[in-house]
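Support case: user asked for a sample of complex input and structure output to validate their parser. Sending the pair below.
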Amino acid sequence: MHSPHIVVIGGGPAGATASTLIAKHGYSVELFEREHFPRFHIGESLIPETYWVLERLDMLPKMNNSHFVKKYSVQFVNAAGKLSAPFYFHDNKPHECSQTWQVVRSEFDQMMLDNAREHGVRVHEGVRVVDVLFDADNANRAAGVTVQTEGGARRDVAADVVVDASGQNGFLQNRFRLRVWDPVLNKGAIWTYWKGAYRDTGRDEGATLVLQTANKLGWFWYIPLHDDLISVGVVGPFDYLFKGRGSREETYHEEVDRCAAVRDRVAGATRATGYFATKDYSYRSTQVAGHGWVLVGDAFGFLDPLYSSGVLLALKSGQLAADAIAEGLAKGDLSAAQLGKWGPEFNVGVDRMRRLVCEYYDGFSFGNFVRNYPELKNTVTDLLIGDLFTDRVDKVWAPMESLYPADKKPLPSWDGGTPAEIAQNKSNELYLPEGKRP
Ligand SMILES: Cc1cc2nc3c(=O)[nH]c(=O)nc-3n(C[C@H](O)[C@H](O)[C@H](O)COP(=O)(O)OP(=O)(O)OC[C@H]3O[C@@H](n4cnc5c(N)ncnc54)[C@H](O)[C@@H]3O)c2cc1C
């Protein structure tokens, strides 16, 4: 009898989580990552609910000993420059999970992948998965992958389960044409890093600031990192940011100049890097698993980064998939229903965050909401920390609706958008300054 073997495609937070937890369940895991770490990645602000997955990964001591900036809150600045009261996570939940981190992803992802190695995962860097293999007797059943080294050598690796954690590339999503673009969340982002820009102190030193642009079409993130760096990016409708305007650098500075709250904070600072940009169309997969395969992290779905939920969703889906795989192996069931049993509830949680994202783009004001419904501040904070997988938080929606303007249109559901194979002109792309690898 052979011992089960699991293959993971991609070594970002989702792949590192799934592989570590499968190894902790006692199974043999091999992970293939096409890049060599450390490599650049965007997605620097963690939210508190990552704590529980980091705890299961044995990552908390490493995070506590790291030099990552500690984050205790998030704060919103409206188009007129008015600051909301900060949403302090600890006031909401007095537990150490309420302190999280602002991470430099090249370092965080390296720590996560090293941690996977320490738990027995066989990690191969610089090795790309080029194909997923299916069973000769059952064409729907994944049976392994073909990998290719940088030298071009190829080999097949048999597997009982293939976990796709390939990020926005969405290896199996493309292959099975499972991607549906979100019908409303079509954004782009341009960002750079500043040295010596304004930093809050004390409990606010690591706060994420979300600052609305003056024309209310988009927003800035202002994320303090270690080594005196601040990550400052502008997000807006794709056409608004990228069509009929100058270079990315020119557009970025036009937006900074129009937003006094950002302009004043970076005045006198020096730029530490060139300009980064992405097309960031949100999307999800219509299926989370098949026989012998499962999707996690951005390979399953990507949600607009407004509330910094991406790494949490990568960690959470990685954990849920690992547990479903271990349970399936124990009972000899690697069907789509078993491997993807967590998918429906996960989707409901992502929908809660998606709704909060869409409300913001539709004019929802946190300050105004909390003034009208002070008793719901904690529940809104629950959503902001990523406590998404409970219907307890659903009590915010009716009061939110009571503040709607009369002409507000209903929000189309995530799967009401265009399947990727029809919208051929859409793709998520990343532009890096010279010298940076993806
Ligand atoms: C503008 C922007 C801002 C964001 N801000 C935040 C934020 O503040 N906080 C937050 O939590 N999230 C944020 N995110 C989201 C976050 O970046 C992602 O959700 C997160 O990185 C997903 O992790 P992952 O492991 O699924 O994918 P990734 O981190 O992308 O990892 C996928 C890995 O797979 C590898 N790979 C791909 N194809 C193959 C292949 N064929 N073979 C082998 N390896 C392969 C890649 O090299 C990569 O290392 C942001 C995203 C964007 C675009």
